[in-house]
Design brief:
Blueprint (H helix, E strand, L loop, with lengths): L2 E2 L11 H13 L10 H21 L7 E4 L2 H12 L4 E6 L4 H12 L3 E6 L9 H5 L6 E7 L11 H10 L3 E5 L18 E5 L11 E5 L37 H17 L1 H19 L6 E3 L11 E4 L5 H12 L1 E2 L1 E3 L4 H7 L6 E4 L7 H18 L2
Helix pairs in contact: 1-7, 2-7, 3-4, 8-11, 9-11
């Protein structure tokens, strides 16, 4: 039996409709959107337009023209942070941040352009709200937090943080890479000014897709200049959205797959998807809790968490555990620091990291039973 439990990295398998949409584009369309007026180019443009509208609908964004497609959430974060922050600005983040947010800001800080504050989180991922409230300065421009941790699954109280930012007239940006398509998000009701997302996780699109959404009060400087398919007669990049932030030919085949993934979510319903993953994860956790040689990090039975289960064992390192699971049992997981070293420091699992299991919508109880049985076999061998 082959068991894929690495959906936090990339969801697999994809819905059949996603594969069909990618194939259909390559076979029957294949043209560049906005670069010509012929029927195939127009067909490609409609794919981009419809996908943009679906993203705006999913997050209740103010305007679809401020939905920008990028290659991934990391690029989206770089575009937003480097296009908003200026010399002398102050930014605030949490200890749960992924490197896609941490590293651009540390670069700006190291370059002497901004000041950066990092708000503490406890080992279960609870953010110190009082510390956050006391960290605002006259020059604070933005608060950027992850929505759901890719290390321990903690879901941050973004509505509360957004409301705090609003009282200070400070922009609030969330990294929704782990929650987009899984946890309902309302940018307007939750006071979210900028949202970054990736397409290849819980939106069921292919790798190489992602983007950002932002409100009407947000202006982001152009990150890349070049071809846009619009205003070709001028020597400078267009200053209107989305063209202002979308230079070059877009990944239309990827966005076609992403569009199908979005349609799949709307068809199935976020609640149904989340309930299935919750049930599978709870079943998995209940069985893991019966194994004395395994410790679950950040487990919180009282609050909503993502299907992200990080464990360690005194008998075996996370990397060796993952290697044996893959090689001998065909169970795919992810060990290590998961591109989030600060989160592991908060959880007390730095520098070794953890072994992460992340069930998805297509995993079954039979697969979890097989995984539990395999874990027990490995630990018995290591304990003898």
């Amino acid at each position: 039996m082959r068991v894929y439990l690495d959906n936090t990295a990339t969801s697999w398998p994809k819905p059949k409709s996603v594969v069909e949409a990618i194939t259909d584009y390559m076979v029957h369309c294949g043209a560049s959107p906005g670069r010509s007026g012929h029927r195939m180019s127009l067909q490609a443009a409609h794919i981009i337009y419809d996908a943009r509208d679906l993203i705006a609908k999913m997050f209740n964004a103010e305007a679809s023209e401020k939905v920008i497609f990028t290659a991934n959430a990391t690029l989206a974060s770089n575009i937003a942070l480097k296009g908003i922050l200026k010399k002398g600005d102050h930014a605030i983040i949490s200890h749960l941040e992924h490197n896609s947010t941490l590293r651009p800001l540390k670069h700006l800080e190291q370059s002497g352009l901004i000041d950066l504050s990092i708000i503490d989180c406890d080992k279960n991922g609870n953010i110190n709200i009082e510390q956050l409230k006391n960290s605002f300065r006259p020059n604070t421009k933005i608060v950027a937090t992850i929505h759901g941790s890719n290390v321990i699954g903690k879901v941050l109280p973004i509505a509360e943080i957004g409301a705090i930012c609003k009282t200070h007239s400070v922009l609030y940006m969330i990294d929704a890479a782990q929650t987009a398509g899984f946890v309902p998000i309302d940018m307007q009701a939750q006071h979210i000014d900028i949202l970054t997302f990736t397409g290849h996780k819980k939106l069921y699109g292919p790798s190489g897709t992602g983007g950002l959404c932002f409100g009407k009060n947000v202006e982001i400087d152009t990150f890349i200049h070049g071809g846009s398919g619009s205003k070709s007669e001028i020597e400078f990049h267009p200053d209107f959205y989305p063209d202002k932030l979308e230079a070059g030919t877009p990944n239309t085949v990827g966005i076609a797959g992403l569009k199908a993934g979005l349609e799949f979510i709307f068809s199935e319903g976020i609640d149904k998807i989340r309930q299935h993953s919750h049930n599978i994860s709870k079943y998995f956790i209940d069985n893991l809790l019966k194994i004395d040689e395994i410790k679950i990090h950040g487990y919180d039975s009282e609050n909503e968490v993502l299907p992200v289960i990080s464990v360690t064992s005194p008998l075996i390192t996370p990397s060796k555990f993952a290697e044996i699971l893959d090689k001998d049992y065909e169970i795919m997981t992810r060990p290590g620091l998961h591109c989030a070293p600060l989160a592991h420091k908060a959880a007390g699992t730095f520098p070794q990291g953890t072994l992460r299991f992340s069930p998805g919508y297509f995993n079954t109880q039979e697969e979890i039973d097989y995984t539990i049985k395999s874990l027990k076999e490995i630990l018995v061998i290591k304990n003898t």
